[in-house]
Amino acid sequence: MECHCFPACWSPDPRERPTFAEIIAVLEDIRDSSFIGTQQDEFVTLRNDWKEEIEEMFNELKEKEQVREKQKNLEIAGEFSGSSVVVRCMGELSDSSVVAQ
Staple partner for 22: which of 4, 18, 36, 71, CB 3.0–4.6 Å? Predict the structure, then answer.
C-alpha cells in the first residue's frame, strides 16, 4: 500500500492537497491492513521467545549459583571437620601426655 497522501497534505497549492475524505480513506486502509496485525503477531512471538530465553538463562544462573553454594558449603565443612580433627588430635595428645607423665 502506497501512501502519498501525507506529503501531499503540505503542498503549497491547496488544490493539490487531499480532501479530508481522502485522508480518512487512507487511514482506514492502514487500520484495516494485515500489516499492522502481522507486526503485532510477530511482536507477540518475539516476546514469547524472549521470555523463554530469559527463563532458560535464569535457570542456568540459578543452577550455577546452587553449584557454587554447594562447593562453598563443602569447603566450609572440610575446614570445619579438619579443625575438629585437629582439636580431637590435640585432645588425644594432651591425654597421652598426662598418661606419660
Answer: 18
Average pLDDT value for residue range 41-46: 81
Q: Based on the domain organization, do 42 and 60 belong to the same domain?
A: yes
CB atoms within 10 A of CB 1: 7
How far is residue 7's CA from residue 27's CA, in Å, rounded to a whole number?
14
In one-letter notation, the amino acid at residue 97 is S
Cut 0.70: pTM above it? no
87 has pLDDT over 60: no
Count of structural domains within the chain: 2
Q: Does 16 lie in the same domain as 52?
A: no
Give the CA distances from residue 53 to residues 56, 67, 77, in Å, rounded to whole numbers and listed in that order. Answer: 5, 21, 36
Q: Could you tell me the residue range of the domain that residue 16 belongs to?
A: 1-32
